[in-house]
Amino acid sequence: MTQTGSAADAPTPALPTAAARTTTADATAAPLTRRAAREASTPVRRVTPVRDAPLPGGRRAAQAARAAETAKASSAARKRRFLAPVVLTVAAGMFGTVAVAPAFAATQQTGTDAATAQRQVRAAEAQQFSVSDAVALAGTSRDGFGATAQSTLDAEAAQQAAAKAAQQAAAKQASDAAATQAARAQTAKQYSSYSGPSADEIATSATAANTPFSLPAVVATAKQYIGTPYVFGGADPSGFDCSGYVMYVYAQYGISLAHSVPLQDQAGTTIPESEAQPGDVVIFNNEAHDGFYMGNGMIMDAPKPGGAVSIRPIWTSDYHIVRFGI
Predict the structure, then answer these.
(1) Global confidence as pTM
(2) Which one, of 276, 194, 275, 277, lies nearest residue 231 by Cα?
(3) Alpha carbon 98 to chain centroid distance?
(4) How would you list the strands of the sheet with 269-271, edge to edge?
(5) I need a labelling partner for 60 at 20 to 30 A (CA). Which of 7, 76, 147, 302 fits?
(6) pLDDT of 214 higher than 50
(7) Are 282 and 314 in contact (CB under 8 A)?
(8) What angle do CA 220, 224, 227 make, to 5 degrees?
(9) 161 Rama class: left (phi>0) / alpha (psi -120 to 50) / beta
(10) HSE toward the beta carbon, residue 61, CA cutoff 13 A
(11) What does the pLDDT read at residue 90?
(12) How far, CA to CA in Å, does 21 sit from each of 10, 30, 54?
C-alpha cells in the first residue's frame, strides 16, 4: 500500500537547518509506512540514569549522597560479620542443651540397672545356715545397761561431797577433842587440890540418882561455885571452864553430859526463849561458850582465863536456850 503523507503530517523543524532540509527532501522522495509514519510523529523521550541526573544542590550534594550510600553499605556488612559468630554460638548451646538430657537419662538408667543387677546377685547368692536348738532356747532378755540422767549424777556427786565433808568434820572434831582432853589433863595436874569424885562418878552415883531434879535446885547448886576460877579443861570445884561447869552441876542430879559445848547442845532440847527459866542452859550459836540462864537476859558462867564463875548480862543475841532433864 503506497500513500504519501501530506505536508501537515511531517514535523515542522524549529530551525531551517541543512539536516532538516535533507530529511524533508528524503521523506518527500520516499513514501513512509504507517508504522514509520506513527513513530516519526511520536516525540522521542530521553531517559537520563539516576546516577547521572543532576541533584539539587549541585555537585556537593551529589558527593554527600554517594558517601551516605557507601556508609550504609559498610554498616550492613559489619552487622553481618558480628551476627555470624553469635548465631553460631547460640545454635551450639541449643544443640548441647538438647543433647545433655538424653545423655543424663541414659546415665541414670545405666546406674539404676547396675543397682538392680547387684541386688539380684545378692539375692541369688544369699547364704543359708542353721542354728542349733541350744541357741534358739537361749535367753533374749535385754542387757542391764541404761543411760543415767545428769540430775542423778549431780545428786550422787553432792551426796559424795556431803559424806566427805562429814567425814572431815568428824575427824576434825575427834582431833580437837583429843587435843582438848590432853590440855585438860595437863591443867588438872596444876590443880590437884581437889580430891573428890569426878563429874562422871557423881552422875552415876546412887546419891545423884535419888536427888530430885528441878530447875530451881540446879540454880541453887550452881550458885555454890560462884567465884571458882576459870581453868581451861577444869571440871571440878578446883577450877571450871564453861562446859565443865555445866557438866559438874548437872551430874549431881544424875544427868551425865559430855565435856563439850557442841555435844551438850546435841544432848539437850532447844526451847523458845520465851519459855526459858533459870537453870536452863544458854548455848551460843557458834558453840564456843555456854552457861546457866538466869532470866532477865543474865547468864551465870565460867567466863575466860583470868576470870571466875559469876552472874553477868548476856552480851549478844546470837544464842539459843537448851533444856535438860525432860
Answers:
(1) 0.46
(2) 194
(3) 50
(4) 269-271, 319-323, 281-284, 290-295, 298-301, 310-313
(5) 76
(6) yes
(7) yes
(8) 135
(9) alpha
(10) 8
(11) 72
(12) 12, 14, 34
| Amino acid symbol at 136 | A
CB-based contact 240:302 (threshold 8 Å)? yes
What was the pLDDT predicted at 69?
75
Taking the C-alpha atoms of residue 232 and residue 244, their distance in angstroms, rounded to an integer, is 9
- Other CB atoms within 10 A of residue 307 CB: 12
Alpha helices in the chain (DSSP H): 18-29, 34-41, 59-124, 133-136, 150-190, 199-203, 206-210, 215-223, 242-251, 261-267
DSSP line for 34-72: HHHHHHHHSPP-PPPPTTTSPPTT-HHHHHHHHHHHHHH
Share of the chain above pLDDT 90, in %: 43
By the 8 A CB rule, do 232 and 188 touch?
A: no
pLDDT digits (tens, 9 = 90+) for 175-206: 887 776 676 666 555 555 688 899 999 999 98
- pLDDT tens digits, one per residue of 104-132: 555 555 556 777 777 776 665 555 656 66
Q: Grid coordinates standing for 317?
A: 543475841
- Beta carbons of 184 and 259 less than 8 angstroms apart: yes
- Whether 282 and 293 have beta carbons less than 8 Å apart is answered as yes
Residue 310 belongs to what H/E stretch? strand 310-313
Residues sharing a CB contact under 8 Å with residue 211, sequence separation 6 or more, in sequence order = 217, 252, 253, 254
**Residue 281, helix vs strand vs coil:** strand
Residue pair 268/221 in contact (Cβ under 8 Å)? The answer is no
